[in-house]
Amino acid sequence: MKGNFLGEERGFVLIIALLILLAITLAGISAISTTSFENSISGNERVGTDAFYASEAGIQIGLNQLPDTKPIPVTAIGKDSSCWSGSPLDRSSPQSLKSLGLYPKVGFDSSWSFKRFQVDVTGSSLKGTKELEVQARFGPFRAGTQYN
């Protein structure tokens, strides 16, 4: 009876080993898939960050040229990055910076005023683009003076 009992268990270990091998294979495939997906995410994050910094460089260019509101031409920032004033659609013809006029500020009487400007810039890096908008003020100026 014992000999017959042992004879029926032949191949049982082989089936268990194959099931364990299948489970380990599925875990390995899942790990490879997750790693590939995470690599794609980090690449997209890098491109987006580079585009953001390119648009931030464009903002600095725009702020440095104020009160002149001329357009910022497509400017290379590094090897694969560039910036220009306006939206992504304005790459071939950058838009002028916007003057938002004079406005009073709390703490200053009516003999003083400030000038407001809006700087819209798009930065690109490889296939990513980022748009930034900044409003800046200049002043104080004596109200009624012709400072630019």
What does this structure look like?
With 148 residues, this protein is an alpha+beta fold. It has one domain (2-142). 41% of the residues lie in helices and 29% in strands. The protein is built from two helices and five strands, in the order H-H-E-E-E-E-E. The chain has helices at residues 2-8, 12-65; strands at residues 75-77, 81-85, 98-103, 112-125, 128-142. It is elongated and about 105 Å long.
Number of helices: 2
Order of helices and strands: HHEEEEE
User: How much helix, percentage-wise, in residues?
Assistant: 40-55%
Distance between the termini: 108 Å
Mean pLDDT: 88
Quick one: overall form? Answer: elongated
Q: What's the total count of β strands?
A: 5
Count of structural domains: 1
Largest sheet, in brief, is:
5 strands, antiparallel
What assembly state would you assign to the polypeptide chains in this entry? Answer: single chain
Radius of gyration: 32 Å
Q: Structural class given helices, strands, pairing?
A: alpha+beta
Strand content: 25-35%
Low-confidence stretches: none
SSE layout and pairing:
Blueprint: H1 2-8, H2 12-65, E1 75-77, E2 81-85, E3 98-103, E4 112-125, E5 128-142
Antiparallel strand pairs: 1-2, 2-4, 3-4, 4-5
Characteristic key phrases:
alpha+beta
Short description:
The chain has 148 residues and is of the alpha+beta class. The protein has helices spanning 2-8, 12-65; strands at 75-77, 81-85, 98-103, 112-125, 128-142. The protein has one domain.
